[in-house]
Please model this.
Amino acid sequence: MTSPKLDIVAIGDAIVDVIATCDDEFIAGRGLQKGSMRLLDPDEAEELYEAMGPAREIGGGSAANSMAGVAALGLGAGFIGQVADDQLGAIFAHDMRSLGVRFDTPPLPRGDGSGPPTGRCLILVTPDAQRTMNTCPGASHELSPQAIDEELVRSAAVTFLEGYLWGPERPRSAMLRAAEIAHQAGRTVAFTLSESLCIPGRREGVQAIIDAGAIDLLFANEEEVRHLTGSGDLERAIGELSAKVTTLVVTRGAAGSMALEDGQRAEIPAAPVDQVVDTTGAGDLFAAGFLAARCRGHALQRCLESGALAAAEVISHFGARPEADLKTLVRL
Amino acid sequence: MTSPKLDIVAIGDAIVDVIATCDDEFIAGRGLQKGSMRLLDPDEAEELYEAMGPAREIGGGSAANSMAGVAALGLGAGFIGQVADDQLGAIFAHDMRSLGVRFDTPPLPRGDGSGPPTGRCLILVTPDAQRTMNTCPGASHELSPQAIDEELVRSAAVTFLEGYLWGPERPRSAMLRAAEIAHQAGRTVAFTLSESLCIPGRREGVQAIIDAGAIDLLFANEEEVRHLTGSGDLERAIGELSAKVTTLVVTRGAAGSMALEDGQRAEIPAAPVDQVVDTTGAGDLFAAGFLAARCRGHALQRCLESGALAAAEVISHFGARPEADLKTLVRL
Model:
């Protein structure tokens, strides 16, 4: 086991966020569920895009946002994800690399234009700062095991896997392959459920890898903990789940967060925010702050605090990537 | 002369803004002139894009931003400009149409990918809120006289031409054709110099159309007035220029603005702003506010005030398109 060169490498959706504001009537009128994430086929995405307001495009993707945060915190970050050889793919790659995140996954050729384009997520932000996400994954779901840079995975202390990408078979195989390589190299494998359990058929597969011991560190919110264990009682569900992973981190929105590890338990309130503008990326940046503090050797409590501070920054403005100087805000 | 269906139709660059923050050292280190606009060839643009920070993409273009403002103020706006058949072109078109701006110029096919892509403007915003613009016009400069929708031009009370697009021969012919159609239909032709005079060789062509009486309403800043007339004395330069156009509007940044028409003169201070974040679009939105008030029949003073309020909104946030409810802010 050699000493890691990178702190964290993430595998996740490589997509561009398309962010627009809208009112509650727009959400209700289209039968969307506020605060949720759903997958769209290209025709649905086209139709929704036409109906929504003027937008700003920013590199996105849950685990990619986390790596943006990790790099902003001054740690070494890498990302593996599939874009297409098009303008949105170039935007995604630029936004990653310009943050100092290593990103080398070759873009998928679009051929005669019939191949899947770079994925996008149409994000509708309502006046209450909630975001409703409509993802058209495109090339992102074509990530294959061959695209996994084994050397990169071996070189990172933590391999961080995104639940959203867990569904389709090809990227799931790619992530399983990465987890295997990471464990062989004596590294830590982290997994974020990222609301992916709302996708039908996702629960059993996630349970299976947790039961198989493939996950060392799990990020979940309260609802996901309940849903995954099938237990209505939160404390009982947490106890059950924490027995299966080395470290369990549970986020509770405005109620704060907690972590359990080796019988230890830490709990903190959410960091204060002057004005919540857009909650997109809150969970992604929480994971970034937690993982960065963990890589720097901090105790559970400090890791939670770091996560809460990073999350507080990202919800104070539009977009899921940090804009303020995270290093100064969090001080690891 | 039939009654106009649209209030204003603009002809200008159809480009996507790529906005990133940077420090003064970045600007100085690359030999850029802060606050300026320059044209880049595709290789230079690629190189600068790689060097700059993570960005947000928003539909841009000077006159297009003005039409976004005019539509936000509740007036009927249209836009004519050339995008390519690519993802950035789709973003530009979406951002226009979703604001209610009529935009029907067919995209230029990219063929085997060798055709010019949709134009983009790499905008670097320094901590003092100044923007340094680096434009790669791409398809935007391919606008041809055939792309002018004559019926659309005839249907608008005002045809608004953007100085940036005045340089290359093809779009210049297109704009001259539009001005001719507008005048034949008894409409008003407005022109904004939009700092275009900083482009070598631009001055004489602009002087020529002003001298030819092709422009009824001219927007200029102090420096442009001096540069265009070749007179160091501002008052004298203004007097000289105002004799050649029906209406002359001069913006003076933080010092406010003034307008001259038929011997009348109005002058106002700039509208107060809590915090100036990004001055991109200040001139574009000033023109929007002025033109919208004018179309609603207001007097010079009220037109200047309307322009100042619209400009104040757009400099209070990143990006050159209004985000707040302009209609409520300006109340025409």
